[in-house]
């Protein structure tokens, strides 16, 4: 490898990281989902004169970016909610992907002169799976109903696998001219089952490796390596790498709480959040950067046609979802009601928001760029550039239009706010865990090795917790996802006063820096437990209320 070329690539990578940090900071100030601003920033930079073109190899997207993102999405998915909403998730991630592929394929065949059916359906498969990264980033913050979030997150876990199976079948038909429906159906079953088995196996091995690894950072490294091992192993035997990562993340989440210490979980979460922030940020900025070198291959007239096709295909994909979601929501419930098994109908507002939440992203980008260059006979693959550019129009349009409108739309529909059921579940869990702790302390009271004063001190903590969250206590407003502003402010004021006292003792030479580091860690953990871990410490006493700003 040429060292000069390698250094130049490293410099470009560092420049993109700096740009990503600037744009994500700006997005937070503008209250805009960061993927949207990163895509627009990448687009703007790509068309600046003198900027060298940056081409992203599809294997980089599939191997570097997708495995940890999918694994983490599965890890933070509630298995209970996934099972409860399995029908809705299946109708969206399998039924809707198939319907969108067919609908977009027919529209593309009618719109684009001379395009083959195989190429049209390849385009349909490419744009069929929505990406939940931008959507859930917005919806989590505003507190939409938990069921809606579970459905959207569950859909995003499985729809990629469905779309990639359809995509590979369509690409095979483009390259060879042959297509078999039964082969595609059988292939989907094979890659789904095979991918799931691979993911579970890799996760099982990873779990036992984590338990036997003595080093904290070794344990964290195993969690980072596991998704890549699952992906590579699945792809090597030609099964679904997507489902391998999904199954592995779900399995590991189920067992990691009992397999590692709180310190490992805290540090692992920090490492993973940094990795995911960097990967998501980089991929969205690279999406914008890809459009300039690709559009340079087309004439002005061709670009105008491609943009028109892209907008019409975007509209087709959005309308297909708007038609499918109400059908998938109401028809099964009407059938169940007719046979005497009625189910509650969801709010129309939730159905509408689910229909609107359909931004395209990482998988659409990777699948479009992964189109082969030639057919089986060595001739160039027809309409490859047009398919890629139309896919980019769909990505940018859905991210910008739907992404920017999602937050105001959710609030206008009245779907933002606290989830009372979740608050009650949290209160019940706190009460029952406190009861378990008290029962264990009662058993330890007979052990003479535990002084009564120590036992009483610990017992008092859990008795107060039980009084606060027990079944006879009113629902505590601080038990929900969002703590009371006033309570959070007061905790911050007291915590910062405590921290200032420690620093003052160090500055006067009464304690050493090693003691400060130990106390600082204790205070940090306590701040996280009290829900104020994101607040910046003010070294000097701040005006009233300013400490928690």
Write a short abstract of this structure:
This protein is mainly α and 549 residues long. It has helices at 3-30, 34-46, 58-75, 79-84, 86-111, 117-127, 132-142, 146-176, 181-212, 216-236, 241-259, 262-295, 300-338, 348-356, 362-369, 384-412, 420-444, 452-469, 485-507, 513-529. It starts with a helix and ends in a 20-residue tail after the last helix.
User: Would you report the number of β strands?
Assistant: 0
Work out the helicity level: over 70%
Q: How would you characterize the largest beta sheet? A: none
**Topology as H/E string?**
HHHHHHHHHHHHHHHHHHHH
Strand content: under 5%
The secondary structure category is mainly alpha
C-alpha end-to-end distance: 50 Å
Molecular shape: globular
Q: What is the mean pLDDT?
A: 79
The number of helices is 20
Low-confidence stretches: 478-484, 542-549
Radius of gyration, Cα only, in angstroms? Answer: 26 Å
How would you describe the overall organization of this protein?
This protein has 549 residues and is mainly alpha-helical. It has helices spanning 3-30, 34-46, 58-75, 79-84, 86-111, 117-127, 132-142, 146-176, 181-212, 216-236, 241-259, 262-295, 300-338, 348-356, 362-369, 384-412, 420-444, 452-469, 485-507, 513-529. The radius of gyration is 26 Å and the shape is globular.
